[in-house]
Amino acid sequence: MKNLSTDSIQFGEGNFMRAFVDYCIQLLNEETEFKGKVNVVQPIEKGTISDLKKQNGQYHVFLEGIIEGKQLRSKHLINCLDELINPFEDFKSYLELAENKNLTFIFSNTTEAGISHDKNDNFNNKPPASFPAKLLMLLHHRFEKFNGDPSSILHIIPCELIEKNGSKLREILIEISDSWELGEKFKNWLKLNKFYNTLVDRIVPGYPKNEIDFYKKNLPFEDKLMVTCEPFFLWVIEGNEELLKIFPAHKLKKINVKVVPDLTIYRTRKVRILNGCHTTMVPIGLLCGIETVSGALNDPFLKKVLKKALFKEIIPSIDYDESELKTYANSVLERFTNPFIIHKLESISLNSISKFKVRVLPSILLYQKKHGVVPKTLCFAMACLIYFYGKNISSHKFQLKDDKSNILFFSEIWKDLSIEKIVEQTLGNVSMWDQNLSKNISLKENVTNSLKLINSHKNVIDAYNYY
Questions:
Q1: Which CATH number goes with the domain that contains 100?
Q2: What is the pLDDT of residues 310-338, one digit of tens each?
Q3: Which end of the chain is more exposed for a tag (fewer CB within 10 A), N or C?
Q4: Which of 261, 204, 210 shows the shortest CA–CA distance to 234?
C-alpha cells in the first residue's frame, strides 16, 4: 500500500500530548504505512515550545508500570514533530500551517476549560485568546486558501476530558463563526469538517524528578523534556471504519486505539470504575492516614473495601458484559499499584462532592434500582465523605479543597446537629446533588448508621468491621 502522507496540527505541547498523541503517531510512522509529521502549536502565551525547539522537537517517553504482574521500564525516542509554532510570537507562520495540502488531522488538549466560547475574542486578534477562536481562524485561512474545496476539510480529534468534546467544539466554532459574521459559505464548509468525540486514558506523571540519573543513562542527547507514563493506553474515538483508512492505529499492538460508533459505555466504564474507585478511596484512605493510591492498594483493609465496592457493587450496577467489566477493573487495580507513580489522595480529593455526585452516586442509585437495596460499602464511603468534610470533628490533617459554599455548609451542620440531622440536611441539599436524596429512605438509613459508627468509634476500620 502507498504510504499515507497524513500531517497534523496539535494544539498543546504538554506532557500528556507528548506521551499520548505524539507517542501514537510515532508508532504509526514506525509500524504501519502511515507517514506523517506533527506540527505543534503552543495554545497559551506561556509554554514550552521554545524548549522543544532547542531539542529539535525530539524527546524520550519512558513507560513505567506493571503489566500482568511484571514490572516494565522502557524508553522510546519521539522524532515525529516538525514545525513548532508559538502563535503569540509568529502568527503568520501559524496561519501558514493551514496551507499544507497533506494536512489531515487536528489534535488538541487545552484542558477542560479550553473548549469554551470567549466572547472577548475577535477576528482582528492575532491570535485570539481561546483555543476555539484560534482554531477557527486557522480553518478560515484554509477555507480561503483552497477556495472552499470540500476535499480540504480536516479530521478534528480533541482530547480534552469533557463529555462530547468533539460535538462541543463544533458547536462553539459555529457560534463564533456567526458572531464574527464569516459568511454562510464558510460556515457550510466548516460543517463539512469531521469532529470526533473521544475518550483518552493514560496516567502521565511527566518529567521524572526522582532518580534522574537513571533516566539520563545512555541518551543520545541531553533531554530536558523527557516524560514518564504508565504502559496502559486507551484511546476511544467515536467514528466509523472510514477513519481507520487514514488513521490505522488499530494495527498497533503496543497501544489500544478503538474506533466505535458510540463511546458511551467506555466513558461510563472509566467514570464509574476508575474514577469511582479513586473517589471512593479518598475519604476512607485519608481518614486512615493513607496518602497515596498505591498505598491504599497495599493496605489490607483498604484493598478489601475497594475490591468489595468495585466487584460487588459498582460492576453489578452497570448494564454491560460483566466479564469485560471485571477485566477492565482488574487492569485498573493493577494500574493503581504502579510503584513508579506517586498519586496522592489529597490531590484527588479536590472537589470531592461534585466528583462523588458524578462518579459514585450513579452506582449507588442504579444498584438500588436493580437489586432493591442500597450498596452498603458505597454508602459507608458516602458517610466517610460527610465525616471527612466535618473537619473540626474528624480532626484530620488534610486541607479541604472544594467550593467554598460546600465547605461552609459542612462547617455549619457539624456544629451542633445530631447525626440524623446532619445526614438529612446533607442528602437534602439539592444544589449539591441535583436532587433531594433525603427522600431515599434506605440510603438515608444506611448513611446515618455508618456515620454514627464512624463518629462513635473515631476509627474507620473499627466502624466498617462493626458495620
A1: 3.40.50.720
A2: 999 999 999 999 999 999 999 999 999 99
A3: N
A4: 204
